Amino acid sequence: MNVEITGLTRRFGRNQAVAGVDLRAGPGVFGLLGPNGAGKTSLLRMMATVIPPSSGRMLLLGRDPGSYEPRREIRQRLGYLPQSLGYYPGFTVVEFVEYFALLKDMPARQVPKAVAAAVERVDLGAKAKAKLRTLSGGMLRRVGIAQAIVNNPELLLLDEPTAGLDPEQRVQFRALLRDVGQNATVVVSTHLVEDVGAACTAVALMDAGKIVFQGTPAELTARGEGTTAAGDAPLERGYTAVLAQARS
Amino acid sequence: MSEPDLGKVWIGVAAEVWRRRPGALERLASRLLRSPGLARALLTTPSLLLPWLIASIVVLGAGAAATLGTGQPLVALVAPALAAAAIAYAYGPGIDPAWELSCSMAVSDRMVLLVRALAVFAVNAAFGLVASAASGTAAAVTFGWLIPMTAVCAFTLATATVARSAAAGAAAGLAAWMITVLSGRVASGQFAAVVTRAVLVLPYLAIAVTCTAVTVYATRIPRGTSG
User: Fold this and answer.
1) CA A184, A185, A188, A193 torsion-angle sign
2) Does residue B223 register a pLDDT over 70?
3) Confidence bin at B226 (pLDDT 50/70/90)
4) Residue A87: its chain B contacts at CB < 8 A?
């Protein structure tokens, strides 16, 4: 198991963003669904070792991120795309991806090829030398994805990765997710149910800081069958039905 | 004969065409720090970029000219404030656009903070010494501000780190230095008292050590799990 989480909580002052989450995930694409404010981003930030949990146990890639050396080893094998990707406007696409490859402690000799491969995988070859300030929102999102996959991560954490992508790019991106998920654990936080249906092998649904459903997309779909839950697609009806049940 | 993998060939070509050749300074920093990532992080320090450096030189140059004209040791009073502001704007949320991402990197953000703060301090100390020497002040004034500068920089860094705000750190540092200078003026009748009086060295050092300890504590590695 690449992700083993038990009783994880995170408080921000009086607000409990994550309230006792248990989660286990191996290789594959894992979708993290939920409404805004459900705690998805906080959970992902803890898994990215950006913020520590308030309590609970977390093992990532078999290591405890609470100690310096294991945490460094996790970060070398980690790819992370934050919800809001800050960028240096004067950097080119290649410079940005290269910067984070170096900060991930990749051997300097491997960096140029790894950067070129990552930029090509997100279909930004034609913009490789373009300054980031000249790119559209969708292109910037793809630059963010490129830096996340540049080190061939064993654990890839993506927060709302398809925000700003057009339909064609989203289809390409889902193919990329499935490809990466063959060897790595990919956790995708999203509120777009169709992304989960198309790319994920497993899914968890969060509400009010807790996981209220965990299973396959087919099992989530089944939860909506025979109900009057709202939704335009079967998976959406399952999502709505589980949320309604959790809140009742 | 098997067909060549054109995808792999193209990646090899693209890597060569797109690769960025690091400049002499980055290569030197990479060798000294033994980390290309840390070297790159150092060279992206906002307060070590050319516009900031030019602005610092202009301010210190004006200070040196004013010192020559008025006889007041303006460089000695301005240099610590300038260095403190530069330290506050060396690293942190709001300063580094990709701060959130940087916090998940193998090269620790504490090392980035340390390397950037030391480099900013060294550059500002060098600029200040040149300006101070050029302004024709006595040796006690020329070197006297280095220890107060250390204290002000450490205080600014600690405030910025705890408040997670460069602006708060810079404001606190500048205000503290201004109060110190004015207090020295009121107590002794001389602006230069805060950089020339030997009795102040120990308090300055105590402040520097305490504030450095606060910064180290504030940037400690948080516990990842608990039982």
Assistant:
1) positive
2) no
3) very low
4) 97-98
CB of A166 less than 8 A from some CB of B: no
Summarised one tens digit per residue, pLDDT across range B141-171 is 778 889 999 999 999 999 998 888 889 999 9
Interchain proximity B222–A68, CB inside 8 Å: no
3-state DSSP call for residue B169? Answer: helix
Structure tokens at B110: 């504490």
Query: What value does the mean pLDDT take over residues A6-29?
Result: 93
Q: Do B100 and A84 touch (CB under 8 A)?
A: yes
Any residues with CB less than 8 A from the CB of B54 and at least 6 apart, and which? none
B73's tokens = 């040791």
Size of interface A-B (CB pairs under 8 A): 121
Number of residues that this document lists for chain B:
227
Task: Provide the H-helix boundaries in chain A.
Answer: 40-47, 68-76, 93-103, 111-121, 137-149, 167-180, 193-199, 217-224, 234-247
- Cα gap B38→B26, rounded to integer Å: 10
Q: What are the Cα distances from residue A215, in Å, to A29, A51, A188, A201, A230? A: 12, 27, 15, 9, 20
Q: How many helices (H) and strands (E) does chain B have?
A: 12, 0
pLDDT digits (tens, 9 = 90+) for B103-119: 999 998 888 999 999 99
A23 to each of A58, A246, B104, how far by Cα in Å?
A: 9, 18, 21
pLDDT digits (tens, 9 = 90+) for B58-70: 999 999 999 888 8
3-state secondary structure of B68: helix
C-alpha angle A206-A191-A27 in degrees, rounded to nearest 5: 70
- Find out whether B89 and B49 touch, Cβ atoms under 8 Å: no
Q: Say if the Cβ atoms of A112 and B36 lie within 8 Å.
A: no
Residues 6+ apart with CB under 8 A from B183: B194
CB spacing of B11 vs A120 below 8 angstroms? yes
CB of A234 closer than 8 Å to CB of A225: yes
CA angle, corner B159, sides to A104 and A105, nearest 5?
5
- Report the range out of A10-14, A152-156, A197-201, A242-246 with the highest average pLDDT: A152-156
Cβ-based contacts of B100 with chain A (< 8 Å): 50, 82, 84, 86
CB B181 within 8 A of CB B77: yes
Gap from A224 CA to chain B (nearest CA, Å): 36
CA distances from B180 to A59, B81, B163, B225 (A): 50, 11, 22, 44
pTM: 0.87
